Amino acid sequence: MAFERNFLLVGLVLALLAPLVAYNEYALHIGVVIMFSVMLATSFNLIVGYAGEFPLGHTAFFGIGAYTAALLSMRFGLPFYGSVLAAAVMAALFGLAIGGVTLRLRGPFFVIVTLCFAEVLRLIASNWIGLTNGPMGLSGIAKPAWIIHFTGVEQKLWFYYAGLLLASISLLISYRFVYSNVGRAVVAVRENRFVAQSIGIWPFYLGLVTFVLAAAISGLAGGFYAYYISYVGPEVFGFSFMITMIIMVLAGGKGTLVGPVVGAVIVVFLEEYLRDFKDLRFSIFGLIVIAVVIFLPRGLMGFVTRRHELYRPRDGGNISKALSGEPDLTARALDTERGVLDA
Amino acid sequence: MDLFFQLLANGLVTGTFYALSALGLTLVFGLMRVVNFAHGELYVIGGLLGWALTAVLGWNYFLTLLVVILVLGVGGYLIDQVLIARVRGQGEEPTILLTIGLSIFIANTALLIVGTTPVTVASPFASKPLFLGPVVITQARLMLVGVCAVLIGGANLLIQRTTLGRAMRATFQDTMAAQLVGIRTAHIYGLTFALGAILAGAAGMLLGSIYVVEPTIGGVISLKAFVVFILGGMGSFAGAIVGGLILGVAEALWGGYVATGYVDAIGFALVILTLLVRPYGLFSKRAERA
User: Fold this and answer.
1) Shortest CB distance from A287 goes to which of B94, B105, B230?
2) Single pTM value for the model
3) Closest to B86 (Cβ–Cβ): which among A116, A119, A294?
């Protein structure tokens, strides 16, 4: 808990300072993509890592958020923060409705049915031309009024900090949620549903709470995405965003708050490097997913924290020393990694 | 009324094809409890291999079908023994992820090799129309319905009546008891997955002569197969057939009478409705598993 908090705080400070060393459009663009990915990964992780279900249609909420923000901004001229917030609320409402139906199922049934919902939404987005402009999508979403006269790099900088703010809020909410009584109860259900039920925990209700929260964060990410890219099409419901989310959460380590953040950073950089491989990169991505499942089943952070847990009892009395040992090392290793990549 | 019969016939024919393309998925889930997200990609491999051998190299159709069955059988066995065996017994999630990774890999590698152009398998069946009363059906489709029925029946016989099928069912009912009576369960897992892959590949090859095959179509096939598989109650052969027919007829009627825009959404709407009424499928006898 303390390790996660410290790690995230160090990450926040680093992210705040990053533009000092990397002040150009390309680097800031990558920064914005990282912020947006962190939100998506965090939201997906809430369900996969904590509730222990696998919503393969999680892009539904991302897409709903993106479309809501785009439509509110284009049709009603709502300002940036208003429509991004509305995107989160709308996604949460959809989360309530979809979760209410799908959470009655578990395992593979849940996986497939959430996927069905995302597909239905994708089909509606491409067929309801009056509302969504069909496959053409909604383009030309106005940037916030106060940054229009900024230069390109200043706009990117603004988006970077706005993204950082939203990502920090998402992580803060997730942190408070995960370490609350409700969050612990959710983990109890994940670990053993029947024991949890026997001590008075209501799995469906807790699942729904987690689901709605995750949907809201996903919608927030969608709203931010709509403004940043200034275009929304039916592909926001598509499988490619889903795959990115899955890889980020798994490679980073599900069930930890730090894991998806690390995963998001790694995957965004990896995508940039793999760009050289052009078409081959998706094949490589597929192989990476397979390799992660087989060789790193708990993800990078899962691996690190397990080492950390194994390390503790050996030290006997001096737990605090053991606690401060390894996280520092990993944090430093990751910091240097990030520094190298930023430079 | 003639239109209704025509639509119904079209729906039943498409439904049989849906049933065939979902059969491998149903089998693998019903026996192994593995949701194979690479199912559509195995279908694509079958279709593309069929195209390469018949249309490009000019091989005989039935010889090609045999080759497709052989290649996918060996491939499926290897996929199970090399990949899925490593995460066996760790719950559902790792297998789901593993097959998703596999599907990404296969789809994009196929895209690199074949390109984006849709292709078709060269078929020996004539596309001459047959007039059965008010209904028109092409000869090729009618032949394929027959082939589908033979394949479905054959797979069912294999599982219900042969020693291998009995060993399969024993393995998935109680692995340890099966081991005690001398069944090589690891082998059986591989063979079951291989059978699922064969059915997927054969479906791809057979339907590739009527519909187009392209590397990216696997996702759509998987989704349709999931719909059939849920409608039919997951894991039962009869359920898969009924689910396929329901989906085919519903799509044909909706497309004919209402609008063509949302045809693809019908299946998902049916699934969601089914869930509201019977959460574990229309024909499922099984209650929730612990």
Assistant:
1) B105
2) 0.82
3) A294
